[in-house]
């Protein structure tokens, strides 16, 4: 049986951190549109106008990200299911996902909303660093990278869109566009709300609990 779960939450709510744990436990693929776009940026294949939107903290056109997900979900490692992290972010994206799953006679198990107050989100994003090699996500204060990574700034990524100006734009984009997704999924009876403040492992426990609900 396939397991398809959507994690919805503002930037910094812990989608990436929790997706990695869930995918490890359930043996499903982690599909982060943000990670895919950053990889395209590193490969030099992301169109310059999309790159500019991303660096400024705006949302890319729905069609561009939907095409990415449509292709990626056909890969063999998605056959047992996947956790969607950062997609869908708008109601049109959610509608495209719904059509795509219908065509493949698949369905969503749940949409888990990670809820974190805005003040905490800014603080989390500004302190986020990512290991360029492994993709492991750190927080400079709560979950600091190991000394060997800190000593060589070339090994740690400090995302351009985690600078204060872009952080504000991204949180505003979440409030104005992504928040509309919550009533969309609530109406379908798929939305599960999780308090995502506290130790990451406690948040994971709350996610397991809502995934067991019918
Ligand atoms: P998202 O994928 O939703 O943008 P991340 O998983 O990248 O969020 O987490 C953003 C930042 O918050 C990272 O620095 C991460 O280490 C930190 N973080 C994640 N979960 C928690 C938590 N429960 N408490 C405090 N900080 C957290
Ligand atoms: P994330 O890593 O999820 O915070 O995404 C980083 C950036 O990639 C976002 O600020 C957007 O510019 C872009 N992006 C990622 N996913 C989407 C999406 N579903 N729709 C539009 N833009 C996206």
Written description of the protein model:
With 214 residues, the protein is α/β, with parallel strands linked by helices. The chain has helices at 15-26, 33-43, 48-56, 62-72, 91-103, 118-126, 147-151, 164-176, 181-187, 200-212, and strands at 3-8, 29-32, 81-85, 110-115, 128-131, 137-139, 156-157, 191-195. The protein has a domain at 3-117 and 180-211: P-loop containing nucleotide triphosphate hydrolases (Rossmann fold). 48% of the residues lie in helices and 16% in strands. The chain has a five-stranded parallel sheet, with helices on both faces. A hairpin with a 5-residue loop joins β5 (128-131) and β6. α6 (118-126) packs antiparallel against α8 (164-176). The chain is globular, with a radius of gyration of 17 Å. The model has no long low-confidence stretch (mean pLDDT 95). Bound molecules: adenosine-5'-diphosphate (ADP) and adenosine monophosphate (AMP). The site of adenosine-5'-diphosphate has 19 residues, from α1, β6 and α10. Adenosine monophosphate binds at residues 11, 33-34, 37, 53-54, 57-60, 65, 86-87, 89, 93, 161, 170.
Task: Please outline the helices and strands.
Blueprint: E1 3-8, H1 15-26, E2 29-32, H2 33-43, H3 48-56, H4 62-72, E3 81-85, H5 91-103, E4 110-115, H6 118-126, E5 128-131, E6 137-139, H7 147-151, E7 156-157, H8 164-176, H9 181-187, E8 191-195, H10 200-212
Parallel strand pairs: 1-3, 1-4, 2-3, 4-8
Antiparallel strand pairs: 5-6, 5-7
The protein binds adenosine-5'-diphosphate and adenosine monophosphate.
Adenosine monophosphate binds at residues 11, 33-34, 37, 53-54, 57-60, 65, 86-87, 89, 93, 161, 170.
């Amino acid at each position: 049986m396939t397991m398809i779960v959507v994690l919805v939450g503002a930037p910094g709510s812990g989608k990436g951190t929790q997706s990695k744990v869930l995918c490890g436990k359930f043996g499903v693929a982690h599909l982060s549109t943000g990670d895919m776009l950053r990889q395209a940026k590193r490969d030099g294949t992301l169109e310059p106008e999309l790159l500019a939107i991303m660096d400024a903290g705006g949302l890319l056109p729905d069609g561009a990200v939907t095409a990415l997900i449509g292709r990626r979900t056909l890969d063999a490692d998605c056959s047992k299911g996947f956790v969607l992290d950062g997609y869908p972010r708008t109601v049109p994206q959610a509608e495209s996902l719904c059509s795509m799953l219908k065509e493949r006679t698949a369905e969503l198990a749940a949409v888990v909303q990670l809820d974190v107050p805005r003040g905490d989100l800014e603080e989390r994003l500004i302190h986020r660093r990512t290991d360029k090699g492994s993709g492991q996500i750190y927080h400079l204060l709560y979950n600091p990278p190991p000394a060997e990574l800190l000593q060589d700034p070339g090994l740690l990524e400090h995302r351009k869109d985690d600078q204060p100006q872009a952080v504000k734009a991204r949180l505003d984009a979440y409030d104005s566009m992504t928040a509309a997704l919550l009533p969309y999924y609530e109406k379908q009876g798929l939305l599960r709300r999780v308090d995502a403040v506290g130790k990451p492992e406690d948040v994971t426990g709350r996610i397991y609990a809502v995934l067991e609900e019918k």
